[in-house]
Amino acid sequence: MPAISNTIVAREAMSQIAKRENWAKQEAGVIVVFCIVFIVAVGLIGLWISKCLAARKAKKVAASNAAA
What we know:
Layout: H1 2-18, H2 23-26, H3 28-67
Keywords: Membrane, Transmembrane, Transmembrane helix
Transmembrane segments: 28-50
């Protein structure tokens, strides 16, 4: 009965592939580093956006003062 044998082998292979470990629990330091990098990146992007908005506002004020 090779068909039954093949299905059992395929089922075992799928169970091995589907078996997952908790990688985040094992590598907690890496997760902490990812979080720190994300927070720093969000802060830098926020700073850049703030600078762009301030420059746009200053340009509007300068244009309205020049027109008046």
